[in-house]
Each structure stands twice: as structure tokens, then as C-alpha cells.
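Dear colleague,

Following up on yesterday's call, I've attached the two folding results inline so they're easy to grep. Please treat them as preliminary; we haven't cross-checked anything against experimental data yet. The first protein's sequence and C-alpha cells come first.
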Amino acid sequence: MYAIIKTGGKQHKVTEGDVLSVEKLMGDKGDEVVFNEVLMVSNDKDVKIGKPFVEGAKVVGKIISQKKGPKLIVYHMIRRKGFHKKTGHRQNLTNMKITKISM
């Protein structure tokens, strides 16, 4: 059984037991998070596709940790003018484990 959920403006395909990193969610280590924005749910026999979300479907996950993603370097330069600027960015992420998918 798997589901496609929407969180942080992105879509993720998840199954029970998966560990994934999503954009930062409020909560501490060990807290449960319920995703109600389920776009599609599929088991061995049946596929339900939402318009836009599947009614009554939810995905439950448990927060493992709050962390930061890899550093991204942003470099701007204007040629022949002597201008250059270098900055970086690290996105806050939530590492979580999917515990239950229900239709």
C-alpha cells in the first residue's frame, strides 16, 4: 500500500515504514503528524484518486528529528564591473517515519 501526500508545496510517494525528509513541520522528536492532504491512495486491488484530495484518507507519521539540509551556494556576478556577491542557504527539514496509511 502506498500514498501520495502533499506537504511543503511538494508531493511525496510514501509507504508504511518509509523515512523521509520534508520541509520543517512544527513539533518535537516523537510527536505524531497527520497528513490530511492525500492526493492518491493505492493498495493491492484498489486505487483512489482525489479531486484534489481523497476524502477520509490520512497518513500518520512520527517525527524522528529536526535538522538542516545541505548548504546551497548562491553566487551573483556582473561582468566587467567588479561586482560579485556570494551567499549561502540551508533549509530546515523534518526527518520523519511513516507509521500508518488509511483509506
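Below is the second protein, in the same order (sequence, then structure):
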Amino acid sequence: MPQLEQVEFFISQLFWLGVFFVILFLVLTYFTLPKIRAFLNKRDEFVQSHISKQDELIKKAEQLIENYEQKLNEAKNQASKIIAEAKESALQDSEKLIKATEDKIQQEIKNTEERVSKEKSLAIEELNDQLKDSASTFLSKITSFDKGNIKV
């Protein structure tokens, strides 16, 4: 019975298996795998280019941060200098103002002392005049002549 004869059937299956395996191997080797390899290579190049761009961007960012920090430090130094100069200028201006005010006060004191001195001398002169008038009035009353007689 041919159905039970497995040897020929098995050999033909092995033959066709070998033929299809070789065809499949050749199709994969010459058509499919090169496309897959090309796609993988292209993807690797794409990834590498983006990684290199990323590295460049990171370096640029670090450089920008470094420049920013340097400029920030320079600005802080300039601000400190400006503040120090402003303090010094304010101190000088305040010293000038204090000196001018002190000079003005001293001048006012001098003027006031001169006015007080003048007023004092005027008061003394006026007092002397009043004393003279009082003395002359007193003497005139004491030494008044009544019809040629002296009354004491």
C-alpha cells in the first residue's frame, strides 16, 4: 500500500523543504536583509547625528551658562564699585554740607555776638545818658535856687 510507504514521502518532503529553505535563504539574504541592514544603518546614523548635535548643544548651553555667570559676576562687581563710589561721594557731600553748615553757624554766632555787643554798648550808653539825666535832675532839685537863696 502506497499510503503506508513513508520513505518516499519523507524524502520528497525533505527535498521540497531544502528547496524552499534555499529559496527563502536567498530571498532573505539578497533582498530583505540588505534593506533591513540599510534601515538599521540609517537609523544608527540618525541617532548618532542627533547625539552629536545634542552634545554640541550641551556644550553651547554650558558655554552660555559660563558666559552668563561671568557677566553676572562682572555686573555684581560693577554694582559694588558703583555703590562704593556713591557712598564715598555721599560721604564727601555730607562732609561738605556739614562743614558749610558749621561755617554758617559760626558766622551766625559771630553776627549774634556782634549784635549783642552793640546792643550792650547801646544799652550802657543809654543807661549812662539816663544816669546823667537822673543825676542832673537830682542835682537840679537839690541845688535849686529859690529867689536867690540856696536851699539845701
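For the second protein, one point worth flagging: Strands lie at 145-146, 149-150.

Best wishes,
A.L.
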